Amino acid sequence: MAGRRLREAVKEVMTSGDKDSSSDIHVVIAGLTNTYSQYVTTFEEYQIQRYEGASTLYGPHTLKAYIQEFKKLASSLISDEPVEAGPQPPDLLEKQISLLTPVVLDATPLGASFGDCKSDVPADSTFRQGDVVTVTFWSACPRNDLMTEGTYALVEIFVKSTNNWEPAYDDDDWCLKFKWSRPSKLSARSYATIEWQIPDEAVSGVYRITHFGASKPLFGSVNRFTGSCSAFTVT
């Protein structure tokens, strides 16, 4: 109901009261979930104080406030007038309390570097659709870099025409799993196991699995690293 009332208010402004043109306008609300303002309910629903009403943070007139501001935005859109930025919510990141222990140090065994294979695929190996390819890399705590808009794991295919490795699957795909493990809580060593269950639609070719991460030294900022396994064939 809150959404219907908001859409009707915006539509009224966009048509400027002209009912004949109202059928040509369709208002869509595209909102994000779990964001700053949480739920927005009608005045009536707020009085009942069920789940959504009790989670409307800014009081019973929240919807009216939204309608007021969206009508202003719609009017500015029609008249092509600039809109001044309103007050910004306070940045409370430095005041947030985290119960996670910080990452103190990441390390690898002597002779190994971050991104090196702890367990590689067999040399000149060949797999088929439905097989599972497993590779383990010496890695670091994933909390050092959450890889926002990126990936911890990537399956690449070699393209002969460009002589380059190109992305085929990443950790958005169900067929690719990224598993991080620190065997000993008191150890700075950890590793990442990447499993790729080759889907039926995977094309034949030469592939490799690449791991992206970031390690934290005892002093200084984190260092990003990349490692790839040996090439293998999918037939």
UniProtKB/TrEMBL annotation:
<protein>
    <recommendedName>
        <fullName>ceramidase</fullName>
        <ecNumber>3.5.1.23</ecNumber>
    </recommendedName>
</protein>
<dbReference type="InterPro" id="IPR031329">
    <property type="entry name" value="NEUT/ALK_ceramidase_N"/>
</dbReference>
<dbReference type="GO" id="GO:0046514">
    <property type="term" value="P:ceramide catabolic process"/>
</dbReference>
<dbReference type="GO" id="GO:0005794">
    <property type="term" value="C:Golgi apparatus"/>
</dbReference>
<dbReference type="GO" id="GO:0034599">
    <property type="term" value="P:cellular response to oxidative stress"/>
</dbReference>
<feature type="domain" description="Neutral/alkaline non-lysosomal ceramidase N-terminal">
    <location>
        <begin position="1"/>
        <end position="68"/>
    </location>
</feature>
<keyword id="KW-0333">Golgi apparatus</keyword>
<keyword id="KW-0378">Hydrolase</keyword>
<keyword id="KW-0964">Secreted</keyword>
<dbReference type="GO" id="GO:0017040">
    <property type="term" value="F:N-acylsphingosine amidohydrolase activity"/>
</dbReference>
<keyword id="KW-0862">Zinc</keyword>
<keyword id="KW-0746">Sphingolipid metabolism</keyword>
<keyword id="KW-0479">Metal-binding</keyword>
<keyword id="KW-0256">Endoplasmic reticulum</keyword>
<feature type="binding site">
    <location>
        <position position="39"/>
    </location>
    <ligand>
        <name>Zn(2+)</name>
    </ligand>
</feature>
<dbReference type="GO" id="GO:0016020">
    <property type="term" value="C:membrane"/>
</dbReference>
<keyword id="KW-0443">Lipid metabolism</keyword>
<dbReference type="GO" id="GO:0005783">
    <property type="term" value="C:endoplasmic reticulum"/>
</dbReference>
<dbReference type="Pfam" id="PF17048">
    <property type="entry name" value="Ceramidse_alk_C"/>
</dbReference>
<dbReference type="InterPro" id="IPR031331">
    <property type="entry name" value="NEUT/ALK_ceramidase_C"/>
</dbReference>
<comment type="similarity">
    <text>Belongs to the neutral ceramidase family.</text>
</comment>
<dbReference type="InterPro" id="IPR038445">
    <property type="entry name" value="NCDase_C_sf"/>
</dbReference>
<feature type="domain" description="Neutral/alkaline non-lysosomal ceramidase C-terminal">
    <location>
        <begin position="70"/>
        <end position="234"/>
    </location>
</feature>
<keyword id="KW-0732">Signal</keyword>
<dbReference type="GO" id="GO:0046512">
    <property type="term" value="P:sphingosine biosynthetic process"/>
</dbReference>
<keyword id="KW-0325">Glycoprotein</keyword>
<dbReference type="Pfam" id="PF04734">
    <property type="entry name" value="Ceramidase_alk"/>
</dbReference>
<dbReference type="GO" id="GO:0042759">
    <property type="term" value="P:long-chain fatty acid biosynthetic process"/>
</dbReference>
<dbReference type="GO" id="GO:0046872">
    <property type="term" value="F:metal ion binding"/>
</dbReference>
<dbReference type="GO" id="GO:0005576">
    <property type="term" value="C:extracellular region"/>
</dbReference>
<dbReference type="InterPro" id="IPR006823">
    <property type="entry name" value="Ceramidase_alk"/>
</dbReference>
